[in-house]
Amino acid sequence: MEKLQTKIFLTLFFLSALVWIGGTTLQNLTAGRLLEFGTIQFNQNLTESSERAMYQTIADAAVIRFASYPLVLIFAFLYLRSTTRSLKLHGWLLMSAILLFIFIPVEAYCLWLEWKIVGLQYWGTWPLDEFRKAFLGRITALAGLPLIATLCYYTIIGLVIFRPMKKKELEIV
Question: At CA 100, angle to CA 118 and CA 64, rounded to 5?
Fold first, then answer.
C-alpha cells in the first residue's frame, strides 16, 4: 500500500494533467477551425469577429496551459520520487515518465511562442495580421514536433490504463 503522500501527489498530478491536456486539446481544435483542412491557409469563410474570438480562445487556453504545465511536471516528479513502484518492474510507468519529460524543451518553446498571442490578445488592440503571424509561427514551430508531443501525451493515457511491460518479479541474470 502506497503512502498517503504518494496518493496525494498522484491525485494532484492527475488533476493538473487533466486541465493541461484539456487546454491543449481546446487549443488544437480551435487552431484546426482557423485553417483550411490539411493546409496552413486561413479559412476564408471566417468573419473578422469570429477569427478574433478564436484567437481569444487560443489565448485563454494558453493561459490555462501556462498555469497547469509546471504543476504537471512538479507533481509528476514528486510522485515518481515518493512511489514505491519500481521502474524496473513497471515499464509502463517508466515509459510514461520518459514520454512526459522528454518533451519539456518542446513545450517550453511552444509556451514561449504562445506568450506572444496572449500579449496580443490582452495588451492592446492589434490588427489581425499580427495575430496571424504569431499563430502561424506557433503552428509551424519545430516542424510538427509539438503535434508528436501531443500524441505522446495521449499515449501516456493508454499506457496508464493498460499497463503494458509490467513484470511479475525481478529477473536476476
Answer: 25
Give the residue from 74, 75, 78, 73 showing the smallest Cα distance to 101. 73
DSSP of 29-75:
HHHHHHB-TTSSSBPTT--HHHHHHHHHHHHHHHHHHHHHHHHHHHH
pTM metric for this prediction: 0.91
pLDDT, mean of residues 20-33:
96
Query: Residue 50 above 90 pLDDT?
Result: yes
Residue with cell 520518459: 98
Is the distance from CB of 93 to CB of 161 less than 8 angstroms? no
pLDDT of residue 77: 98
What residues contact residue 18 under an 8 Å CB cut-off, 6+ apart? none
